[in-house]
Design a protein that fits this description.
Strand order of the largest sheet: 1-2
Order of helices and strands: HHHEEHHHHHHHHHHHH
Largest sheet: 2 strands, antiparallel
Structural class: mainly alpha
Radius of gyration: 27 Å
Shape: flat
Strand content: under 5%
Helix content: over 70%
Number of strands: 2
């Protein structure tokens, strides 16, 4: 009578030399290490820290060092007790303080992303239609802002928009106003700062998508009787949608949790998730709530990533 017992997978693998040879050849291939190194980097410096943040978000805030409790413990009878605290997530969904911060964050980011992508597409389209020898210079000028610190660029706007800044001083000197105008401390200043700092993130992917457009498609549009405006809306925009989706994704995901710009250019009413993370972590020492807010931000940002990422992949295909 034959036994129905199956060998473990490792033994079944060893019984087939062809599989062992294939595995050995794949490991010996230099491309294997080129792929595994970024994977290990992603696991060690992204997945593992993300798991730690998620673990802390399910703990309770206590007065100790570190200021949170462990989610598991062993009893004297070697019984593992696991205590998961989801109250932080419930508080984020029910407390008006966090709901208003969420609404403010969405409001600021939708407006700033819309303005960034609108201006970014116009600038990318202008660079695309410029003379070939001028394109590297224009792209260099766009990238020039990355040569200075992010914080220095925000303080430059404070110097321009403050009560004694360049704009108010100029308006008073020419006699248009008698008293300084408060440009900072409101949503307009925050939107302006977000647009200025994240505009290059929209320009580069849109220019890259425009550069891939086959010139023969545009020429065919003109041959079919379309003018410049018709060609732009019927040919250029559809063929560059992948760059638009990527620009929207980059600007929205990068600016959603921003702390510096709302803190320095905004007022007390411009409360965003980025500012709340600072308050909860450094002032209240509530690490579990901070981690819960961070996980919530990642979940919110992941939604447009899947939506626009899928559309961008579809457009490329």
């Amino acid at each position: 009578m034959k036994s129905s017992h199956k060998l473990p997978p490792i033994f079944s693998l060893l019984m087939k030399p062809r599989r062992i040879r294939t595995l050995y050849n794949s490991i010996k291939d230099p491309r294997f290490f080129l792929g595994i190194l970024p994977t290990l980097w992603l696991i060690v410096f992204f997945i593992f820290p993300l798991c730690i943040i998620f673990k802390i978000s399910l703990s309770q805030a206590i007065l100790s060092a570190p200021p949170f409790s462990e989610i598991y413990s062993w009893t004297a009878d070697n019984i593992l007790n696991i205590t998961l605290n989801i109250q932080n997530y419930i508080t984020i969904l029910k407390d008006s303080y966090y709901i208003n911060a969420f609404i403010n964050s969405i409001y600021l980011n939708v407006i700033s992303t819309t303005i960034c992508c609108s201006l970014g597409y116009m600038m990318a389209y202008g660079i695309y239609n410029s003379r070939p020898y001028n394109r590297p210079i224009l792209l260099f000028l766009v990238a020039l802002s990355f040569w200075t610190s992010f914080l220095v660029r925000v303080y430059a706007w404070i110097n321009m928009l403050s009560a004694h800044g360049i704009i108010n001083s100029f308006l008073i000197r020419i006699g248009l106003i008698d008293f300084p105008i408060h440009f900072t401390g409101n949503y307009y200043a925050v939107c302006m700062g977000l647009v200025f700092c994240y505009l290059p993130f929209a320009i580069f992917p849109m220019y890259s998508a425009l550069e891939k457009i086959d010139k023969s498609c545009i020429e065919a549009s003109y041959d079919l009787g379309y003018g410049p405006s018709g060609t732009f809306w019927a040919v250029t925009i559809p063929l560059s949608k992948s760059g638009i989706y990527t620009g929207v994704l980059l600007v929205f995901s990068a600016s959603f949790g921003d702390f510096v710009i709302p803190e320095l250019l905004g007022g007390s009413d411009t409360m965003t998730f980025g500012r709340i993370i600072w308050i909860e972590f450094f002032s209240n020492l509530d690490w579990p709530m901070t981690c819960a807010i961070s996980m919530t931000i990642m979940f919110i940002v992941a939604i447009p990533m899947f939506i626009f990422g899928g559309k961008s992949k579809y457009q490329d295909e």
